[in-house]
Write a structure and sequence with these properties.
- The protein has 248 residues and is of the alpha/beta class.
- The chain has a single domain, classed as Vaccinia Virus protein VP39 (Rossmann fold, 3-Layer(aba) Sandwich).
- 35% of the residues lie in helices and 22% in strands.
- The chain has 8 helices and 9 strands.
- The strands form 2 sheets. A 7-stranded mixed sheet has the order 3-2-1-4-5-7-6, with helices on both faces. It has a two-stranded antiparallel sheet with strand order 8-9.
- Helix 1 crosses helix 4 and helix 5 crosses helix 7.
- It starts with 6 loop residues before the first helix and ends with a strand.
Length: 248
Amino acid sequence: MGYIFNLNDAESYDNWYNKPENKFIYELENKLMVDMLEPMNGCSILDIGCGIGLNFSILFEKGLKVTGIDPSQPMLDVAFNKWKNRVDLHHGFAEDLPFNDNSFNYAVLITSLEFVDDPLKALEEACRVAKDKIFLGVLNRYAIKGIKRRLKGLFTETIYNKARFFSIWELKQMIHCLVGDVPTAWKTVSELPKQNGKLVSLIEQFDFIHKNPFGAFVGIMVALSPRYRTTPLPIVYYNQCNIEPVVG
C-alpha cells in the first residue's frame, strides 16, 4: 500500500493551494493537462488520486463529466465540501479501480503516481478504464526543484519523503511495456527554481521552453486504442456421419 494522505495532509494541501504563488503553479500544471489532453465537451474523465479536487475546476470548464477516486477519506471529504454533487467521488486505490473496461473517455493521474505502491499496476488500470487518452502529471526526478526536495527530505520530514520521483524516459518505458507503441507526447512546466513573478510568467508562455526535459512538472499524454476482455465460447458443429452435435 502506498502513502495515504491523512487529515493533516488534507488541511495542509488546502492551505498551500490558497497561497497566490502556489496557485500560479497549479494553473500552469492544469493548463498543460488540458492543452495536451484536448478533451471534448461532454466526455467523461476519471481523476485518479483526485485528492481535494484541485483539478476539478478546469475540467468542469471544459464541459467534462468528472469522476474522482482517492484512497484518502479526509481528502475526499474536503473535495465533497468544495464541489458537492458536481462530481462523482469514490474511495479506492489506483491499482484496483472499481470500474469496467473503457468506462471513461479520459483518465488522469496528477501527482498521484508518486504515492502509489505499484506505479506500473496503477498505469495499467488507467489504461484499462480509459478508452481515448490518459494524462500523467508527475514530479520530475531530474528537475532542480525535484533534487532540492529530495535533499531536504534527508534532513526534514516532509511529504516528499513518501514520494517516488519519475523521469520522462522511465515513464515512457512503462507505457511502452503496457500498451506498446502508441502515440505519446511530453512537455514540462515550472522550468525555473523560482516559480512566480513576471519573468517566470513570461518564460512559461513560450511553447518551446516546455520541451526542456528538466522542468519541475512533467506532463505525458498517451493516446489509447480500446481494448476488451473476451471470453472464449465453445464452437458447436455437426459431424456429417452423426447428427449429434459435437462441442469443440
